[in-house]
């Protein structure tokens, strides 16, 4: 599949916090409860660049510790 960043909100330590409501993933995507969001590495790089110049919030997803 190549280099992919898989974001599943159920795996995020920030879920159900104030940060969740302001998350770029929450903002960009409406998803069903069981769906994961897959973002290509090039898209992650673009989001990171937008974030670095203040045009988009930084990615707040943090994988929960098992």
Taking all residues together, what is the mean pLDDT? 76
Cα separation of the termini: 25 Å
Number of helices: 3
Q: Which class best fits the helix and strand makeup?
A: alpha+beta
User: Unreliable stretches, pLDDT < 50, 5 or more residues?
Assistant: none
The largest β sheet comes out as:
2 strands, antiparallel
How many beta strands in the DSSP annotation?
A: 2
Shape: globular
Features:
single chain, two-stranded antiparallel ribbon, globular
Explain what this protein looks like in three dimensions:
This protein has 66 residues and is an alpha+beta fold. It is built from 3 helices and 2 strands; from the N terminus they run βααβα. The protein starts with a strand and ends in a 14-residue tail after the last helix. The model has no long low-confidence stretch (mean pLDDT 76).
Q: Could you give a quick summary of the protein structure above?
A:
The chain is of the alpha+beta class and 66 residues long.
Helix-strand blueprint:
Layout: E1 4-7, H1 18-21, H2 24-28, E2 37-40, H3 41-52
Antiparallel strand pairs: 1-2
